[in-house]
Design a protein that fits this description.
Elements: H1 10-22, H2 32-43, H3 48-55, H4 59-68, E1 72-74, E2 79-82, E3 89-90, H5 91-104
Helix pairs in contact: 1-5
Length: about 100
């Protein structure tokens, strides 16, 4: 395996390897199948963190794709709303979950 950090800092390397395991689709294009699955999960009321784990994506990627697909919109106070219903989550929750998942990796 390639060492990701010069000098061979194994703790950083292990964290990077774990992050890749958790966010296995990070940076990849969204396939039609994954977009369909995201819609199913969202429409079924699955929590953001569970969507991230199943789809291997960051919270920001999930929210961005839901907005692109017309499932979410941003309202006052940075609340995310299912278009056009009640708030689903807040931007700080997305940001904090991004950090949490990256730290787990």
């Amino acid at each position: 395996m390639l060492q990701l950090v010069s000098g061979g800092d194994l703790s950083v390397q292990r964290q990077a390897e774990e992050l890749v395991k958790t966010l296995f689709n990070m940076g990849q294009l969204w396939s039609p199948e994954h977009q369909g699955r995201l819609k199913e999960l969202f429409d079924s009321g699955v929590k953001l963190e569970d969507m991230c784990r199943e789809l291997g994506r960051t919270p920001s990627a999930i929210v961005g794709k839901l907005m692109q697909l017309g499932r979410l919109q941003v309202g006052r106070g940075n609340h995310y709303y299912p278009a056009p219903e009640d708030a689903w989550c807040l931007w700080p929750e997305v940001r904090d979950l991004d950090r949490k998942l990256k730290e787990e990796g």
